[in-house]
Design a protein that fits this description.
By secondary structure, this protein is of the alpha/beta class. It folds into 2 domains: 129 residues, Response regulator (Rossmann fold, 3-Layer(aba) Sandwich), CATH 3.40.50.2300; 62 residues, Arc Repressor Mutant, subunit A, CATH 1.10.10. Helix 3 links the parallel strand 5 and strand 6. The longest helix is centred in the C-terminal third of the chain and has 15 residues. The relative contact order is 0.11.
């Protein structure tokens, strides 16, 4: 059974999200919390974090990644362009939806995230394609020449893992993991970790 921690600033939003999930047999909703600094935060490590993003907390996802490093992240945004403000160092969200997404979309995103899959609202996905410096960027000639280690790091990036977890999985230092991530992004011409994964999959360098 997949455990889900709901993070939302407003009680009404927490209640609404909880109501969407609570009757699903394969999902177990943990105590909902107002944010990463809420005293009521659970000691249990959830499988999935369902976050109603607070634009006023720029480091919210980074803090949540520190508290729950193994949890998949599903983020709800007010506007498609809000996606670009996510903290790259916090690890990638497995799903990014708009806040007007329906119950079926949110439930499907939570299940997909728990399975290690990615899902994005089409309007948010378009931000990765059309924003300046994104897919229009010219990759280096080395894009198809990732080292064996970089390929390993890329595979872990595709799972949405932060640098610290990647380092642990590969038996390297966090600094070295961060270096490899930066090298991958440079070779692929990516502006973010999420974009690197998307570009790699699009170019056949990665199978999701």
């Amino acid at each position: 059974m997949t455990s889900v921690l709901i993070v939302a600033a407003y009680p009404s939003v927490r209640a609404g999200l909880r109501a969407m999930l609570v009757n699903e047999d394969d999902l177990r909703v943990l105590e909902a919390t107002a944010g990463a600094w809420d005293e009521s935060e659970t000691d249990e490590q959830p499988d999935v974090l369902l976050v109603d993003l607070d634009p006023g907390r720029g480091d919210q996802t980074e803090r949540l990644a520190e508290l729950y490093p193994d949890a998949a992240l599903v983020v709800l945004h007010d506007r498609p362009e809000d996606y670009r403000h996510l903290e790259a160092e916090a690890g990638n969200p497995h799903a990014a939806l708009l806040k007007d997404a329906g119950p079926r979309e949110i439930i499907a995103a939570v299940r997909a995230a728990a399975a290690g899959l990615f899902s994005f609202d089409p309007a948010i996905a378009a931000q990765l394609v059309t924003r300046p410096g994104s897919y229009s960027r010219t990759p280096t000639d080395a894009e198809d020449h990732l080292t064996e280690r970089e390929t390993q790091v890329l595979q872990l990036l595709a799972l949405g893992l932060p640098n610290k977890t990647i380092a642990s999985e590969l038996g390297i230092s966090e600094h070295t993991a961060k270096f490899h991530v930066g090298s991958i992004m440079t070779k692929l011409g990516a502006a973010s970790r999420t974009e690197a994964v998307a570009l790699a999959a699009r170019r056949g360098l990665l199978v999701l």
